[in-house]
Amino acid sequence: MGIAAFFCGLLLSVMGFGRWHETGSPWWLAGTLTLLALVLVGGIMGGGRKKAG
């Protein structure tokens, strides 16, 4: 996962939390938490690559 994708995912998560706060809908909360979990897992897994050579 690229650094730009990581920060875009974090930005979308923050925006989702804001939308959840406005609407109070549990769907916004569930979707935002799922997206945040995927971004964090992708960031952790993507950072563990070894360079060839």
Report the C-alpha radius of gyration, rounded. Answer: 14 Å
The mean pLDDT is 81
Which sequence of SSEs, written as H and E, runs from N to C?
Answer: HH
Figure out the total of helices.
2
Shape: elongated
Poorly predicted ranges (pLDDT <50, ≥5 residues)?
A: none
User: Helix coverage percent of residues?
Assistant: over 70%
Class per helix and strand makeup: mainly alpha
Terminal-residue CA separation: 21 Å
Number of DSSP strand runs: 0
Question: In percent, how much strand structure appears in the residues?
Answer: under 5%
Taking the sheet with the most strands, its summary is: none
Characteristic terms for this protein:
53 residues; mainly alpha; 2 helices; 79% helix
Gist of the model:
The two termini are 21 Å apart. Helices cover 79% and strands 0% of the residues.
Describe the structure.
With 53 residues, the chain is mainly alpha-helical. The chain contains two helices and no strands. Helix 1 (3-23) packs antiparallel against helix 2 (26-46). The protein is elongated, with a radius of gyration of 14 Å.
